[in-house]
Specification:
By secondary structure, the protein is of the alpha/beta class. It has a domain of about 190 residues: Rossmann fold (3-Layer(aba) Sandwich). The chain has 16 helices and twelve strands. The protein binds nicotinamide-adenine-dinucleotide, the ligand O=P(O)(O)OC[C@H]1O[C@H](O[C@H]2[C@H](O)[C@@H](O)[C@@H](O)O[C@@H]2CO)[C@H](O)[C@@H](O)[C@@H]1O and manganese (II) ion. Nicotinamide-adenine-dinucleotide (NAD) binds next to helix 4 and helix 5. This is 6-phospho-alpha-glucosidase.
Length: about 450
């Protein structure tokens, strides 16, 4: 069986150990010859790199493992780049979340003004990665889940249209896992229909392989409990903010009871509720810095000190196996059905061709082919058109360095009440992002 060389970009990410463990767990279907970690933060990379080097020697000595901050070393001789960078790290996520709150607007990692600020930073970092990959391994594929995926995908569509970059999000995978628990099934035994944008979509069908439809049964449950299930799905989602998000899906379903909603819609449909229920001094960034980030780096330091990763606290990120599904689909032409972020081109019949939408696709060695979802109702169509225009204006603003277009983008966001508030938030975000954004005129 062919063996693959993979670089994880954002090698210092809190998700890196879970992904490495997941890759080892999937070695039978996706064998590795090389595994490299790449980050542009030397210190972060060294801590996780040293710990994972110890782990790899113990658990997979046959795989050539390395970590580096040198792009050439990282990107030469690779088949896949798995990208999960966070430009500006948690320090900037905290600002994305807290600056809008000062103006009475919900602060969030990928939605609303926080997500737009993050988008302006991510585009530069992602283009840099793509260019390194194409320079040093022109045949490689990039599997990107760096956020905000909707904006990154639109920027790639315009600025790197021929690049082999696939944008994907694990929220539909994670939510399907919850749905499967509600109906006592295995997620792999279910096929879904879905339409939307990234972090902005709806399920229209959840069927088993015999074609039996389960959406009504799931809706019945969600109308009472949201997506909160009894079984612990993953550790991060036991955090109070995620529990609340899964519960709130009940009120999203109430707005349009035909479809099962993506939980991220709460930031657009209930922004007042989100704002009122947020602690302006302690946001999700603080929860993660005190939780996942601390645990991962403490654990890595422990491994380095002990010189062994035996009985370590690193856990397989089971959810992340969708990344291996995607890599296998490309490598072995599996024609896996996966929800991906792709250029619409008719997949949603009454939506612009040039919008980056999130729909089920069949993925083979040439990439994803979208499965047509037909016409969507007016309510969802209008919401999506507003949001996709926010994203398109932002990418145009980035390219043209246009303050005007970025202000329009913020003003159009359903999360922001007026052009004045949009301008006030934007001006504060410009100040906070001086080291990251292009200078706007
Ligand atoms: N698409 C999804 O569904 C999904 C799911 C989970 C996480 N994510 C995304 O994964 C990313 C990582 O999340 P995290 O919480 O682990 O963040 P993190 O801050 O712990 O890790 C990100 C790493 O990226 C590095 N980095 C930043 N800019 C870089 C660049 N230009 N080149 C190389 N490395 C760079 C940072 O130094 C940092 O070590 C985020 O973008 C997050 O939103 C996406
Ligand atoms: O607040 P965070 O950093 O914990 O999570 C933000 C990310 O949330 C989603 O990803 C989840 C995923 O849905 C879940 O199944 C599991 O794997 O954890 C992930 C991280 O919590 C979302 O899809 C991402 O885009 C966000 O970055
Ligand atoms: Mn996501």
């Amino acid at each position: 069986m062919e063996k693959f060389s993979v670089v994880i970009a954002g090698g210092g990410s809190t998700f890196t150990p879970g992904i490495v463990m997941m890759l080892l767990d999937n070695a039978d279907r996706f064998p590795l010859r090389k595994l490299k970690l790449y980050d542009n933060d030397k210190e972060r990379q060294e801590v996780l790199g040293k710990a994972l080097e110890i782990l790899m020697k113990e658990q997979a000595p046959e795989v050539e493992f390395s970590y580096t901050i040198d792009p050439k070393e990282a990107f030469a001789d690779i088949d896949f780049c798995m990208a999960h960078i966070r430009v500006g790290k948690y320090e900037m996520r905290e600002k994305d979340e807290k600056i809008p709150l000062k103006h009475g607007v919900a602060g969030q990692e990928t939605c609303g003004p926080g997500g737009l600020a993050y988008g302006m930073r991510s585009i530069t970092g992602m283009l840099e990665l793509i260019d390194y990959m194409e320079k040093y391994s022109p045949d490689a594929w990039m599997l990107n889940y760096s956020n905000p995926a909707a904006i990154v995908a639109e920027a790639c569509r315009i600025l790197r249209p021929d690049s082999k970059v696939l944008n994907i999000c694990d929220m539909p995978v994670g939510t399907l896992r919850r749905m499967s628990q509600i109906i006592n099934k295995n997620p792999k035994d279910l096929d879904v229909s879905y339409f939307g944008l990234n972090h902005f979509g709806w399920w229209t069908s959840v069927k088993d392989k015999s074609g039996k439809e389960y959406i009504d049964e799931i809706k019945e449950y969600v109308s009472q409990n949201g997506y909160l299930t009894q079984v612990e799905v993953d550790t991060q989602h036991t955090d109070p903010s995620w529990q609340e998000t899964h519960k709130k899906a009940k009120d999203l379903l109430a707005v349009d009871p035909r479809f099962l909603p993506n939980t991220y819609l709460k930031y657009y449909l209930y922004p007042d509720y989100v704002y009122e229920n947020m602690d302006c001094t302690y946001t999700r960034a603080n929860e993660v810095m005190d939780g996942r980030e601390k645990q991962v780096f403490d654990e890595a330091r422990k491994i380095i000190k002990k010189g062994t990763a035996k009985n370590s606290g690193f856990h397989i990120d089971a959810h992340a196996s969708f990344i291996v599904d995607l890599a296998c689909a490309i490598a072995f032409n599996t024609h896996e059905r996966m929800i991906m972020i792709v250029e619409n081109n008719g997949a949603i019949a009454n939506f612009p061709d040039d919008a980056m939408v999130e729909v089920p696709c069949i993925v083979g060695s040439d990439g994803p082919e979208a499965i047509c979802q037909g016409n969507i109702p007016m309510f969802e169509q209008a919401l999506m058109f507003q949001q996709v225009t926010v994203e398109k204006l932002l990418v145009e603003a980035y390219i043209e360095k246009s303050y005007q277009k970025l202000w329009q983008s913020f003003t159009l966001s359903k999360t922001i009440p007026s052009a004045k508030v949009a301008k006030d938030i934007l001006d504060d975000l410009i100040e906070a992002n001086r080291d990251y954004w292009p200078e706007l005129q």
